[in-house]
Known about the structure:
The complex is a heterodimer of chains A (788) and B (164).
Chain A: H1 2-31, H2 36-55, H3 59-76, H4 84-107, H5 116-127, H6 131-136, H7 141-179, H8 196-210, H9 227-235, H10 253-283, H11 289-314, E1 316-318, H12 320-323, H13 325-337, E2 341-346, E3 351-353, H14 354-375, H15 379-384, E4 391-400, E5 403-410, H16 417-426, H17 432-437, H18 440-444, H19 468-477, E6 481-487, E7 491-499, E8 504-512, E9 515-520, E10 524-531, E11 536-538, E12 541-546, E13 549-555, H20 556-559, E14 571-579, E15 582-588, E16 590-598, H21 603-606, E17 612-617, E18 623-627, H22 629-636, H23 643-653, E19 663-667, H24 671-682, E20 687-691, H25 694-703, E21 710-713, H26 722-730, E22 740-744, H27 749-757, E23 762-765, H28 770-781
Parallel strand pairs in A: 2-4, 9-18, 13-15, 19-20, 19-21, 21-22, 22-23
Antiparallel strand pairs in A: 1-3, 4-5, 5-7, 6-7, 8-9, 8-16, 10-14, 11-12, 12-13, 14-15, 17-18
Helix pairs in contact in A: 1-2, 1-4, 1-13, 2-3, 2-7, 2-9, 3-4, 3-5, 4-5, 7-8, 10-11, 13-14, 14-19, 24-28, 25-26
Chain B: H1 2-25, E1 26-34, E2 37-42, E3 46-50, E4 65-71, E5 74-80, H2 81-84, E6 97-103, E7 106-112, E8 114-122, E9 126-127, E10 140-146, E11 149-154, H3 156-159
Parallel strand pairs in B: 2-11, 5-7
Antiparallel strand pairs in B: 1-2, 1-8, 3-6, 4-5, 6-7, 9-10, 10-11
Amino acid sequence: MDEFQEILQDFLVESFELVEKLDEDLVELENTPEDLELLNGIFRVAHTVKGASSFLNFDVLTHLTHHMEDVLNKARHGDLIITPDIMDVVLESIDLMKALLNTIRDTSADAGIDVSACVARLDKISGGDGEVAAVESLATPVEEEPAVEEELDFDSMSDEDVEAEIERLLNQRQDEDKAKRAAKIASGEKVPEVPPAPSEEEQKETSSSATPPPPPPPAPVKPVPVPPSSDAKAAAPAKKAPAIVEQTIRVDVKRLDHLMNLIGELVLAKNRLIKINDDVEERYEGEEFLEELNQVVSIVSLVTTDLQIAVMKTRMLPIGKVFNKFPRMIRDLTRELNKKIELEISGEETELDKSIVEEIGDPLVHIIRNSCDHGVEMPDIRVAAGKNETGTIKLKAYNEGNAIVIQIDDDGKGLDIDMLKNKSLEKGIITEKESDTMSDKEAFALIFKPGFSTAAAVTNVSGRGVGMDVVKTNIEKLNGIIDIDSELGNGTSIKLKIPLTLAIIQALLVGVQEEYYAIPLASVLETVRISQDEIYTVENRSVMRLREEVLSLVHIGDIFEVDRILDANEYAYVVVLGLGAQKIGLIVDSLVGQEEIVIKSLGDYLKGIEGIAGATIRGDGGVTLIVDVVALMQMAKGVKATVATQAQTAQISHEKLKASDYKVMIVDDSKTDRMIMRKALESTGITLVEAHDGQEALNVLKSGEHNFDAMLIDIEMPRMDGYSLATEIKKYNKYKNLPLIAVTSRTGKSDRMRGVESGMVEYITKPYSADYLSSVVQRNVNFKSEFL
Amino acid sequence: MSDKLKQIINKQAEQQDVGLDQSNDIVQLVGFIIGEEEYAVPILTIQEIIKPIPWTRVPQTPPYVLGVFNLRGSVIPLIDLRVKFGLGAKNHNDETRFFVLKQDDEVAGFVIDRLTAAIRLKKTDIGPPPDTIASAESMIDGVGKQEGKILTILKVNKLLERDF
């Protein structure tokens, strides 16, 4: 039973791949009915499936493919010209074959599908007594007879061959599996046989080397859209030495996924290593071992990156796998809609992560259906408009930086902006005011709004209740961006920009207060630094002028409910986010840098939190949340401006009206020392706050209760010493200019140097006179003499 | 010699019997304190107990969700049981622990005030929760009686269930 299952699995994988290729070939065949190589290739597919299914006792499938084979064989011998009507029947039979294969996959049996009607039609064609065939066929009945005979003869022979072949190949494969070697069919084993056999063998060759993917589909399948060449290879066994067949190995996708996860961990560890290396470098500058460490770190980092790319590549599939089904779809649509449409495909060899390839199919189907249905006009209208009667839809894929772009262009009627606006107004998607201020791009983007459908009449083709908004959601789920452009009368162009992989992305890390967030770099257009007075408030919203545009702003803290304890600096950083036509400026406190991050889910408990797409683990082991730019843009609409008002209040509190408005913190672990300082400063009337050590001082600062004008810091303290404290304080924008005064008995030159390095502005050595301390403090806080 | 062997085998058999008895009648729990009360969860639902480590706040969550933390490469939510039970937050101290509970594929960390002990309770010593709070929505699985103390046994699946 197990053995049967194994054979069955192989059979299914192989058949599905053959069938996939078949679709493309058949459409191609309709255009060039005389292409004998193409016909041969298609015939062999039907033949292979038939042979294998009869061996596995799938009678219904055998029955169907047998009759398909009859028709194709006739065509192959020139007894039959493939007309669109015949093609319809053939395509129908292929659909049935697919359905049967699906049933077999699910139930291990091929019952439940009625093929008799289709078989009858096939018979009609091949039998030559049917109307269709009789009219179309150029061959006389006399000529037909031998063809059938020959066919039968061929059939009985090759059936045995197929069985023998399958058994032999299976044995071979099992052996190879044991040996864990790439699937390689030894040419030496090939026994000299009757003519049909070598071609059969060759077909097996190509298909067996074509089967190993999911992940890396090897050469024979790759150049899909140029079927003649791939078929030529298959059709000319003599020219092609079996040894050249690309060596592949079939791997369970789960293993690759696991590998990808492990790489993810490794990337995290690498980031961490780099961070530690930087720290060590800072601390032990000039030491000899540093160079060695540097070398090792850079090698590890390099190899990790390469490894990541390599593993990513194993998961890559050419997008042709998705594009394949479109020629057939367009063909069916044109017949259904009575339009004339040509599909041009390019860049199908562009590779994408397997998981994305799987997700991208449906949105593309929808877009193309839309283009056919709503985009391209009826032939007579096209002619009237001075266009070519046949409409063209161009489907192309290409790489752009770290992303791949899929572009769908049609030369149809284009989008009518006024119509779009009116429709949206009617449906209440936008308001009158919005419609007036809307840019063209924004108007085009209306078709992605939920509840929008441009077709006046709902047709079978595209209008099925699911609109383009579903397409948009699906693309955005992949971290992709959708962009639309159109010219009235000249056509529409839709661009999908999709990241190469889902698991690891480039991100911009930004800081707000003490928190950090990662923003996917794909949606970051630019970053700018502006001063607070460049922010204007319009209708309760913050905006800024960015070159020629007015950009609406939102503070990341308002979106993520960050308590703003530490006031914003005089300057703000604005990250300009772009998603299609939408743009928004996100105000952050600091920009940390660009980093490669591994996306991790927040788990079931926290999933679906608005504005958060996931989390990542940073080099220091901490967790950083990843911003969901799509959701953020939505949320930004509901957030009121707080930026400007904040800055104002901060200004007011800096005004000093009396001596006690000045605040100085004394940080010292010795009570006596604190006493001495207090005594020295008491006479000035300055408000004094005490802390016992660095940690406590930092907490006081963070609590935001006080606004300090200066700090007196002892160096020797438990928990956190003065240097570390100073370094920590200087990390905050708000305290960049807070004067830190060291008060210590350490008098060494190197101590002073360290003090300066950590950001201390003054260095008072113990013992000191009360007056000296007081004067230093007064100087640093800009104490107004009239308060004395 | 063979007698000795027999004895040993018999002894082992006896011990196994005892072991079986235990697994049938005895529930193993780990007790912990939140506020003034002692609570417990079944020992097998605990993945690990760790000392507090830094975590990252997650916005748009109720106050009792402190955020997420990194447990050897996994991002795990952290829930403050004090806040969840309406007691108000408290600074973490030396006795504070993170309980990492796991059931099926759900994992979450819970902040507790103090660990007490591993507890073995006879099933007969565990009563149903008081009628007033016994409902499907209740987080309480039962009440254990132990030398004059009362122990609230929590439903782990309820703890791990998102309720916002």
